[in-house]
UniProtKB/TrEMBL annotation:
GO cellular component: chloroplast thylakoid membrane
InterPro entries found in the cross-reference section: Ccp1-like (IPR044831), Haem_peroxidase (IPR002016), Haem_peroxidase_sf (IPR010255), Peroxidase_I (IPR002207)
Pfam families referenced in this protein's UniProt entry, alphabetically: peroxidase (PF00141)
Domain annotation Plant heme peroxidase family profile: ranges: 97-271
Superkingdom: Eukaryota
Name of protein: Thylakoid lumenal 29 kDa protein, chloroplastic
Family: Belongs to the peroxidase family.
Listed GO biological process terms: cellular response to oxidative stress; hydrogen peroxide catabolic process; response to reactive oxygen species
GO molecular function (one): heme binding
UniProt keyword terms in alphabetical order: Oxidoreductase
């Protein structure tokens, strides 16, 4: 019985190895990166191993080695992806904390922040795939338009928050596009929490517990993943966003329809359409297509969990906040500093 063993890198043995009269080849993986290939044969002194058998085993060895190496590379790629996800998640959490703290000290800006986020997204044009929540509303020529009146204070507020966020960011400054949409998220969460506190007779501790137990925090997953919007380099075209306080319900419906939304989404976004949600809903209720949804969400807001209202609002916000956007899922990541073990004194 004769044997030839190949381990990962095989030298040229074609002219040196005996040839079998009855040869059997076996290839197997030993450990994670060592591949053995053996040819077993009964032979007499006059027989020689054929060139074909050697090449066959050599090819199998190389193939299995490539598979092992590609698996190793895949593991490295997955590890890098996990690191980037953690970096983005940690940065996003800090952003939310900064915005929540800032907004808590300026609750009167909540309605304006909601409208700011809506109007930035409403510049989306379905035909040309342009506009959308791209931060273009930050430009003076756009924030000064009639539909954006009274929103400058909200923008200034976010610019101050941006300075703080950029000061601790390790992966570059946050885009205005992301900043505006996440500010709207924090504003919406604050209204949900305020509603829970009110239902608990003004007891903040009980209201917070109620919101934690019955609120819709778990519904924000897809919204949070859309993190990495790019800022526009110039203002979006005029005439794409209505003046909500001067628009008829039909005009509002037409605008929502133009971006792929309907009466249901118009009704659930009533808080975004002006500072007085009750007045906006009274106007929207005059339309027979919108009325059933207004009534549905009003009933929902009176329940303990207000699930229907919160879930539909989050779903609509998620769609609006991604219109026309290509998300950079590597945004805000940064190289991990390597440890020089030679400098460690162990």
């Amino acid at each position: 019985m004769g044997m030839v063993s190949f381990i990962s890198t095989v030298p040229s043995l074609v002219s040196l190895i005996p040839s079998p009269s009855r040869a059997a080849s076996k290839c197997f993986l030993r450990h994670s990166s060592t591949i053995n290939c053996k040819i077993e044969a009964d032979y007499d002194h006059e027989d020689r191993l054929s060139r074909r058998h050697v090449l066959h085993c050599f090819g199998a060895t190389i193939g299995m080695d490539l598979i092992a190496r590609s698996s190793s590379l895949s593991e490295v790629a997955n590890a890098a992806d996990l690191i980037q996800r953690r970096q983005r998640s940690e940065f996003q959490s800090k952003i939310k904390g900064t915005l929540a703290t800032a907004l808590k000290g300026n609750p009167e800006l909540t309605p304006s922040i909601l409208t700011l986020a809506l109007n930035d997204a409403m510049t989306y044009d379905k035909a040309t795939k342009s506009g959308g929540p791209n931060g273009s509303i930050r430009f003076s020529s756009e924030i000064s338009r009639a539909e954006n009146k009274n929103l400058a204070a909200a923008l200034n507020f976010l610019e101050e928050a941006k300075k703080e966020i950029d000061s601790y960011s390790k992966g570059g400054p946050i885009s205005y596009a992301d900043l505006i949409q996440f500010a709207a998220q924090i504003a919406v969460k604050s209204t949900f929490l305020s509603s829970a506190i009110r239902k608990c007779g003004g007891n903040e501790e009980k209201g917070t517990l109620l919101y934690s137990a019955y609120g819709s925090s778990g519904q924000w997953g897809l919204f949070d993943k859309q993190f990495g919007r790019l800022d526009a380099e110039q203002p979006d075209p005029e005439g794409r966003v209505p003046q909500w306080d001067k628009s008829s319900v039909l005009e509002m419906k037409n605008k929502f329809s133009a971006i792929g939304l309907g009466p249901r989404q118009l009704a659930v976004m009533s808080a975004f359409l002006g500072p007085d949600q009750s007045a906006t809903e009274a106007l929207l209720a005059s339309d027979p297509e919108v009325l059933p949804w207004i009534q549905k969400y009003q009933r929902s807001r009176e329940t303990v969990s207000q699930t229907d209202y919160e879930v539909d609002l989050i779903t609509t916000m998620t769609k609006l906040s991604s219109l026309g956007q290509q998300i950079n899922y590597e945004a805000y990541t940064y190289p991990v500093q390597k440890v020089d073990f030679s400098k460690l004194k162990l």
